[in-house]
TrEMBL record:
Organism: Halomonas colorata
Database matches in SUPFAM superfamilies: FAD-linked reductases, C-terminal domain, FAD/NAD(P)-binding domain
Keyword Oxidoreductase: yes
Official protein name in the record: Glycine oxidase ThiO
InterPro entries: FAD-dep_OxRdtase, FAD/NAD-bd_sf, Gly_oxidase_ThiO
């Protein structure tokens, strides 16, 4: 029997397992597909909320800690697995921001480098980016990670750890109880037991919990993205304009995102979203009009009230924990949110105040 049973093998679940195994615990991950192939694979990989000054302070606290952790995490995974998560720290250009003063005030308050720059500066940094307003904002410290490779590297690392077991293509059916206490789960591959359980099922988390009389307000929010195959170096930095962004990869792949759709668990793509994303991309980088769209896909974000994730023990189920509801910021917050949960699981001093994230009965509508 494992010390911990993690339900869900995305980046949140895998990072939780990594931290627990590093601390000497035995961990089993239950994943209905292949680890790292859902929302963790489908996102863009910007290591910051898109407009961080528009988020509640708890999100800012988690994101700032995570941003500082990513360089070390990426280097560790590269050295230990040979798979490069491609952490790139080349800054972000914000175009057409309508609340610049708020943004600059936020940056001063949290000690973040964010400055107003002119069109010449933008052109110097990114000659192929179109700027239609005189001013822009520049955050030089922001980075991005190639999230599919981050998932691959985490999975490869966990497979080498003797204290970690990955049970992939293993669908959970319900919770296993003994004398009224949750002790494990029944799955398509049989029963698995552990001292404590952690639900990290992303957009599917709410579907796993009703049998415990827990109604987690987490819902799927579809996001469609596209990617162009461009000459390497066409764009070097993340560029954000009117809520849409382009994210360059080292091999010239250029991601563009994303839509926000309330469509349940539907992950189909459509021509309307494709046209909208192409239009946004070409407004940022006009040269993309002559480049082919190489990929078009959709993923499901775990939406939650105010985008604040639920992190901690469930009410009346002290041995069942949850880490879900990160909305658009799963990759952004993953290192910090998993560290905060591991602190609770291992009885350590918490990274930050856990109170804003606890899934209390009031938070769950009970």
């Amino acid at each position: 029997m494992s010390d911990f049973l993690i339900i869900g093998g995305g980046v949140i679940g895998m990072l939780t397992a990594l931290q627990l195994a590093d601390a000497g615990q035995h961990v089993t991950i239950i994943e209905r597909g292949t680890c790292g192939k859902e929302a963790s694979w489908a996102g863009g990989g910007i290591v910051s909320p898109l407009y961080p000054w528009r988020y509640a302070p708890p999100i800012s606290q988690l994101s700032r800690w995570s941003e500082g952790a990513y360089p070390t995490l990426a280097l560790r995974l590269l050295e230990e697995t040979g798979i490069d998560p491609e952490y790139r720290q080349k800054g972000l250009l914000y175009l057409n921001v309508d609340d610049e003063e708020r943004a600059l005030g936020w940056a001063r308050q949290v000690g973040k480098p964010l400055v107003q720059v002119d069109a010449d500066f933008v052109h110097q940094k990114e000659p192929d980016v179109a700027i239609t307003h005189e001013n822009a904002l520049w955050m030089p410290t922001l980075g991005s990670v190639r999230n599919p490779r981050l998932g691959q590297a985490l999975r490869a690392k966990l497979l080498t750890m003797p204290r970690v077991t990955l049970q992939e293509h293993c669908e959970m059916h319900d919770f296993l109880r003994r004398d009224g206490v949750v002790v494990g789960v029944n799955t398509s591959q049989g029963a698995f037991e552990a001292g404590r359980l952690v639900v990290c099922g992303g957009a599917w988390s709410a579907k796993l919990l009703p049998t415990l009389d827990v109604h987690l307000p987490v819902r799927p929010v579809k996001g469609q993205m596209i990617a162009y195959q461009t000459p390497p170096g066409l764009v070097q930095r993340v560029v954000l304009k009117d809520g849409r962004y382009v994210i360059p990869r080292s091999d010239g792949l250029l991601l563009v995102g994303s839509t926000l759709e309330e469509a349940g668990f539907d992950k189909t793509t459509d021509a309307e979203a494709l046209a909208s994303l192409k239009q946004s991309a070409e407004r940022i980088v006009p040269a993309l009009a002559s480049c082919p769209v190489a990929y078009h896909w959709a993923g499901l974000r775990p939406g939650s009230p105010d985008g604040i994730p639920f992190i901690g023990a469930l009410p009346e189920q002290p041995n069942v924990f949850v880490n879900a509801g990160h909305y658009r910021n799963g990759l952004v917050l993953a290192p910090a949110s998993t560290h905060l949960l591991a602190d609770q699981l291992l009885g350590r001093e918490p990274l930050i105040d856990p109170a804003p994230f606890l899934p209390t009965r009031a938070h769950l509508g009970g």
